[in-house]
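Researcher: Re-running this chain for the archive, since the previous output was lost when a drive failed. Same request as before.
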Amino acid sequence: MALFLIMWEGICRGFSIPAFILPPPSDVFRSLWDIREQLFGIHLWVTLREALLGLLLAILFGIGLSMAMTFSRIVERLVYPYLVISQTIPIIALSPIFILWFGYDLSGKIAVTVLFTFFPIVVSLYDGLRHTDPDMVNLLRTMGATQKQIFWKLQIPSSLPHFFSGLKVAATYSVAGATIGEWLGSSAGLGYFARRASGNFQAPALFASVVLLSLMGILLFWLVSLLEKRYFKTNDHIQK
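Model: Regenerated structure tokens:
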């Protein structure tokens, strides 16, 4: 990363690239410091709230739908093909429709975030529930376990690695969803700030907001990874 930043700085300085086209990293970090009160005081927390609320709703809906498809073949045949088909449509093209339905306030941004994060959670958890070791299932059945006991004591624990994999993807997508929602219509947030900075040709400020968005995505990914490690570490300790 340090080498990349040095090369970026050298190219901008050596070829005298105008700052409104590609600002050097030094200008970006200087702008990040100069406008820190705007970014950290208002816009950062607005985008973070939208991303977290949208991700939380996507988790709840995703878990519910995955369980419904696991228990009911009818639900699976009705829903799963259309989930796949929905991903062939560019999500950014559907975002204005969600803004139209849910409005330009917080609910609209959350709806767009759910649109971005819902699919990886549903598919990963559903695949995890489906691909439970059949030998373990048969073993529990021979021991007299009911379908409910098999689900809670075997299918759920064995599907958690898949779930966390999808959740890590969804965590990074949540930042993109919140940002696009703000692009479509908002009065605060990093996406709104970036659009305004781009319209005013304030490239250093634009890149500063992009840096914060990237760091936010990395932070959410890291938090999910930390939660995953904590769960499996605790689970291994209990088994021992």
